[in-house]
Amino acid sequence: MKSARPICEVLSSKYEGKTVTVRGWVYRKRSMKEKIFLVIRDSTDIVQVVINSDSKAWQAAQKITIESSCYVTGKARKDARAPTGYELDVTGLEIVGLAEVFPISRDVSTEFLMDVRHLAIRGRKMQATLKVRSKVFEAIHEFCRAQKFHETHSPFLVPGVAEEGLTMFKVDYYGTKAFLAQTWQLYAEAVLPALEKIYTIAPSFRAEKSRTTRHLTEYWHTEVEAAWYDLDKIIKFAEGLIAHVCQKVGKDCQHELKVLGRDPKVLLAIKAPFPRITYTQALKLLEKDGMKVRWGKDLRTLEERQLMNHYKKPLFVTHYPKEAMAFYKPRDPKDPKTASCFDMLCPELGVELMGGSERDPSIEELKKSLKSKGEKVKDYEFYFDTRRYGAMPHAGFGLGTDRLVQWLCKLEHIRDAIPFPRTPSRIRP
Fold it and tell me: In sequence order, what DSSP letters do the residues of 40-89 get, joined into one string?
């Protein structure tokens, strides 16, 4: 196999005037009477190449099509008019895989591009997003492991235990009804006495018929659970994690952020600590803005976005009404109407990125809460055992990793934060 330079390397004065070989795919083609211009793309960048009619490569250049794979050899020179500032004057062009007529041309409607997502994923913005996404996952692992957290996994097929039973996908499990997991949390709590500090990044499934710019039916869930943590300590861990991701992406993905139209300085400005307000304080702030919300009602996206007009950093909203919260979130002993919990809202996007809490140590309170929400208490017997045998204070959170990517990349829709999105109306490709 021929050796070739990554395209990003040849876009520098180091190679100016030198003959180099690159390989990749034809991203753009423009034909003139005596010249053919190709833009070649690889995983690192793009470069424009020029083939003159008197070149040995002319015949291959006439034949080559969009998305054909190829090797290109030529002399590098600086040219401010070129898309990335350099061009190659081609002396050799070898077609490796001649592509048929590429279907993405004039029809760039959202539905069509979703139908051909397996091809549309080659676009520069999608490529940049996937690189940022990879960096986000890397940064999460890096931060958690630096804090001595152990990566742990739980089943995707579960008997019924859930955060919201009405939004679970049913699965036939050898004649027994099972479900796709919404969260690892209940299993994670069982692992705590063995490992104490754990995390995971894994798919979660929600059978919600939500057609919004922030919902997927299958999404990647970063979850953290820690023994001996209270609300304050888990919030500090959460803000440290997000700040680390922002710094990592801002420093390491500047080229990709530029392609996406995102100023890296915005992310580099995100540092801990983040502001905190209570749910009650949030309602007062909203009322000043002309939005009156009844105490006890959960905040909608409309209210969350209005709140974030006041903040440039992620915001923690704490102590939501207990009755509106998941069954495992305990009452705050200082104000039993509220739960010892938080949501993290992100700036610009203005939606919830993360939700977390202390975990209720009382079996009786857990049973009471489960019954009030219509859940089958008997399905949670294994969970109650975590309280019966060596219960300890602990806390955790779940982060919507795709939403985090959406915010960092400044994307209008969450479907563009993941390679192959699953929504209520789409399971292909």
Answer: EE-SS-EEEEEEETTSTTHHHHHH--TT-EEEEEEEEEE-TTSTTSEEEE
Domains of the chain: total? 2
Q: How many CB atoms lie within 10 A of CB 390?
A: 10
Residue ranges for the chain with pLDDT beneath 50: none
- Are 152 and 285 in a shared domain? yes
The residue range of the domain holding 38 is 7-97
pLDDT per residue as tens digits for the range 96-121: 999 999 999 877 899 999 999 999 99
3 state DSSP class of 31: strand
Task: Please tell me whether residues 186 and 63 are part of one structural domain.
Answer: no
38 and 172 together in one domain: no
Residue 133 and residue 73 in one domain: no
The DSSP output letter for 196 is S
SS3 261: coil
Cα 261 from Cα 288, distance rounded (Å): 33
Supply the DSSP string of 131-142, one letter for each residue. HHHHHHHHHHHH
Distance, in Å, from the CA atom of 399 to the CA atom of 395, rounded to the nearest integer, reads 14
133 and 254 both lie in a single domain: yes
Residues 20 and 137 in one domain: no
Backbone φ/ψ region at 13: left (φ over 0), alpha (ψ -120 to 50), beta: alpha
Cα distances (Å, whole numbers) of residue 396 to 14, 50, 226, 355, 393: 50, 56, 6, 9, 11
Which of the listed residues 67, 97, 127 is the one where a domain comes to its end? 97
Residue length of the chain: 429
The pLDDT of residue 363 is: 97
| Helix or strand run (H / E) with residue 392 | none
Q: Give the SS3 label for residue 49.
A: strand
CATH number for the domain spanning 86: value is 2.40.50.140
End-of-domain residue from the set 97, 128, 147: 97
- On the CB side of 232, CA atoms within 13 Å amount to 0
What does the radius of gyration of the chain's CA atoms come to, in whole angstroms? Answer: 26
